[in-house]
Design a protein that fits this description.
alpha/beta, 7-stranded antiparallel β-sheet, 17 helices, 38 strands, binds beta-D-glucopyranose
């Protein structure tokens, strides 16, 4: 038994030290660990433009590669980047599933299928951890809705929980992930961070997992409950519920000292595991090549009539659409990465690739940014005139309204400012004296090129004013919601104020936010652009008509994918849908490139000759896209989500808890394509679909015993190449349980994915044999009464397929109660 003072030392380690780190205690072999947000990159501590980093394709894009090798390579790169920045734990992957296409954070998920998410999540983890950096699988579990994310209560049956939502985390545990994060939400009445069944029975007893489990940021709610349930670490610090309070709980006899000791042992293990980090990053060009190839590998060619793509022999190409030069590279969460100057837009990359063949660029519809950047208008700092950017000054405001002289001054080049716990010059939010406020002023000088109306946008967690040449011109902002300050910063109301400005006449613009003390964070966003001309669409349609080929860049802004807000529509913005329809009517050779990270609605799909879905593709979007459009690279993606013909066709079209905070998973096992298949609904584009450019013939399929005896069976196909272009092929295997009548089993999915392999097919004539291992787990179901997995004995069909709806061959097999597989003619 430890001495009481030792207990205090141990207990201190169970809570973070600050937003991103834990406490150091050499005596207990625990290092101060640095935990930094992912998963699309390694965020800097500052979370802004002063701290640029590499940006990878989003989780859904990585899932669309269906390639372990690609995902592991991205993981390795991120692990290396994290190590070089002295990060011990990278907070990713996000292994929640896209249960509904409306989920605000879907872009981080590896799609809708637990098997695909588990295999690719494991590949990401393996990559990151190969560099001695811990991955942290998040958010355990059912954190697939953002509305009311801190408290909604998922009502779910044990079988669905195990077979669907826990499955990717089980795969992460099997892959040896070193950390996991408990979700904000509740599951069946209990917050995940104090859920004994999840944190102890599942993680420790069923999975025998030895990593550290931490709370999501500000997601710990109790001392005894969390400790007793098995939470090892409260994040962030300073401690609220664990730390010193954990020692108190032990002294009060509420939890045994061994609980705290075990948590510290796990932290010590994590310290050892991350002690040997590899810190030398590869040269920048090589890093960018990994991201470039991964992006191309994720683009899904949904449709390609008359082989319009790759572009060849096209004399003139009209580039249309707002996303051509204002694309969305990533989502708008706090894990947002500040991009470096090397990032090129699709428009710039296409101009470089096609030269004068790009005959026109027309936006055609307004950009969708929630707060458009002012930077393209060339703002100059007021404090050091001439310097690009904004002068930011920090002040205190007395009870009588007197604003102090600047307590600190910065020059910044961003439209979003966020401060956690303290602000320069003002100090800690918690220490602002009662009645006294803080004030931040962002100032710049603008000299517009044109006489025009400019729309200024702003939002903030305090009261925000816009001043033009010292005159108040508008007010807005909103107070942060204390329950979800992180979310409130991202999606508070935006105020838009139109102001007429004259060409060549310099004006001073100030955005000024005042706020009260307390709280954990403050933030403001500001920006503006020239008002949209009325004939945007007409000009675009004219340009499309005059060109040989039109490429429409449609999509959503990064602000459409947020923490703590779900989507209320799966449609593209109406102006873009109209634009696509009009351009397709004007030019039958129209390619639509959709830059959106979820199962977006495409009612116009029948009218477009070619459609390429590019998700949130990361920083190498432009160059990867130019390579794919011109055929230098393969569009390697296959859908990891189902695209429906109508929103109502989805198993869960909208996702919001009911008024009592419950979120009931009534669809059970029938999520994603499982629902479409079982309910016999025709999707617009099915799960697993993607055309690619390669010419590959599927010659024969096979199913036989594994000669090594390691797997239950091997299923596969023989492919013939050499008929045309080489490239990528994805072989998919689905298992369908059959009843005696040969039909699907009631209540169970008609089929589910049990294996896949992505292969490279050479352009030379060759025969390629693909073998995919199958295991008893693939034919098992969760037995709630026994609390364990058991093989589902009976008839099964094993399907070798190009997609969930394009089945090449079916094999009927029998699985016996011991999990043996028998082939041969079975009914
Ligand atoms: C998110 C986590 C993230 C954490 C730290 C939370 O709001 O849900 O995914 O890792 O913040 O930034």
């Amino acid at each position: 038994m430890n001495e009481p003072d030792d207990l205090d030392l141990l207990a201190r380690l169970t809570a973070g030290a600050d937003m991103q780190s834990t406490h150091h205690d050499p005596e207990h072999h625990v290092r101060a660990l640095r935990l930094v947000d992912g998963p699309m990159g390694v965020t800097g501590g500052l979370l802004d433009e002063r701290d640029v980093s590499l940006l990878a394709p989003c989780g859904t894009a990585l899932a669309a590669t269906w390639s372990r090798a690609t995902v592991e390579a991205v993981g390795e790169l991120l692990g290396e980047q994290a190590a070089a920045r002295d990060v011990d734990v990278l907070l990713g992957p996000n292994l929640n599933l896209s249960r509904s296409p409306a989920g605000g954070r879907n872009f981080e998920h590896f799609g809708e299928d637990p098997y695909l998410a588990g295999v690719l999540g494991a590949a990401w983890i393996t990559g990151v951890q190969s560099k001695g950096v811990a991955a942290c699988a998040k958010h355990l579990v059912c954190n697939d809705t953002e509305t009311g994310r801190h408290g909604y209560d998922v009502q779910i049956d044990e079988q669905t929980l195990q077979e669907v939502y826990l499955a990717p985390f089980a795969a992460a545990a099997r892959a040896g992930v070193w950390a996991m994060m408990a979700a904000y939400n509740k599951v069946n009445g209990q917050h995940c961070a104090e859920h004994p069944s999840l944190l102890t029975r599942v993680l420790r007893e069923q999975w025998d997992w030895d990593g550290v489990v931490m709370s999501d940021w500000f997601g710990t709610h109790s001392t005894t409950g969390s400790l007793a349930a098995g939470l090892d670490l409260e994040m962030p610090g300073p401690a609220r519920h664990l730390g010193p309070a954990a020692a108190g709980a032990v002294r009060a006899g509420d939890v045994p000292a061994s609980t705290v000791e075990r948590a510290v042992e796990r932290l010590a293990l994590l310290s050892r595991r991350t002690a040997g980090r590899t810190t030398a990053p590869r040269p920048d060009a090589e890093s960018r090549r990994v991201l470039h190839e991964a992006a191309a590998d994720s683009f899904v060619l949904l449709k390609n009539d008359r082989t319009l793509l790759p572009l060849s022999g096209h004399t003139s190409v009209a580039v249309i659409g707002p996303q051509a030069d204002e694309p969305a590279y990533q989502g708008g969460t706090f894990a947002r990465i500040a991009l470096g100057p090397e990032v090129r837009t699709p428009l710039a990359a296409l101009r470089e690739a096609l030269g004068p063949r790009v005959t026109a660029h027309e936006p055609g519809a307004p950009s969708e940014s929630r707060v458009p950047s002012l930077l393209p208008l060339g703002p100059r700092a007021t404090d050091s005139p001439g310097e690009p950017g904004f002068t930011v000054t920090y002040h205190r405001v007395d009870t009588d309204g007197t604003v102090s002289e600047p307590l600190a001054t910065d020059t910044r080049a961003t439209g979003i400012l966020v401060w956690f716990t303290e602000l320069p010059g003002i100090g800690s939010l918690a220490d602002l004296p009662p009645g006294s406020n803080g004030l931040v002023r962002v100032s710049c000088l603008l000299t517009p090129d044109n006489d025009a109306t400019y729309d200024f946008h702003f939002a903030g967690t305090g009261d925000v004013r816009l001043l033009i040449d010292g005159q108040e011109t508008g007010r807005g902002g909103s107070r942060a919601m204390p329950a979800d300050v992180m979310g409130a910063l991202l999606h508070g109301n935006v105020t838009r104020i139109p102001v007429s400005l004259a060409a060549g006449r310099q004006v001073r613009v100030d955005f000024e936010m005042s706020f009260t003390g307390g709280g954990r964070a403050q933030g403001m966003q500001f920006g503006g652009r020239a008002a949209v001309p009325a004939d945007l669409a007409e000009r675009a349609v004219r340009a499309a008509r005059e060109a040989d080929t039109a490429i429409v860049f449609a999509g959503v802004s990064q602000d459409s994918s947020l923490e703590s807000q779900d989507r209320d529509s799966l449609a593209l913005p109406a102006a873009q849908t109209d634009l696509i329809e009009q351009v397709c009517a004007a030019n039958p050779r129209t390619v639509v490139v959709v830059n959106a990270p979820f199962a977006v609605d495409m009612p116009w799909a029948g009218r477009a000759a070619a459609i390429l879905l590019t998700w949130f593709p990361g920083q190498e979007y432009g160059s990867a896209l130019a390579d794919v459009l011109t055929g230098a690279l393969e569009p390697g993606g296959r859908l990891p989500v189902t695209l429906a013909r109508a929103d109502a066709d989805h198993a869960v079209p909208a996702t919001a808890p009911s008024d009592d905070g419950r979120l009931t998973y009534t669809e059970g096992l029938l999520t994603g394509y499982r629902h479409f298949d079982t309910a016999q609904i025709k999707p617009r584009f099915c799960f697993g679909h993607g055309l690619g450019y390669a010419d590959v013939r599927w010659r024969a399929a096979h199913l036989h015993a594994d000669p090594t005896g390691r797997h239950l069976a091997l299923a596969g196909v023989t492919l013939d190449s050499g008929t045309g272009r080489g490239g990528k092929e994805v072989v998919q295997v689905y298992a369908a349980p059959l009843t005696d009548t040969g039909t699907a089993e009631p209540g169970r999915p008609e089929q589910h994915l049990v294996g896949f392999t992505a292969v490279h097919v050479s352009p030379e004539p060759a025969e390629l044999r693909v073998d995919i291992p199958l295991d008893v787990r693939d034919f098992s179901m969760w037995d709630t009464r026994a609390g364990s997995w058991r093989p589902r004995a009976g008839r099964w069909e094993i399907r070798l397929a190009r997609s969930s709806r394009d089945i090449f061959q079916r094999f009927r097999v029998y699985i016996d109660p011991d999990g043996n597989l028998r082939t041969g003619p079975i009914g």
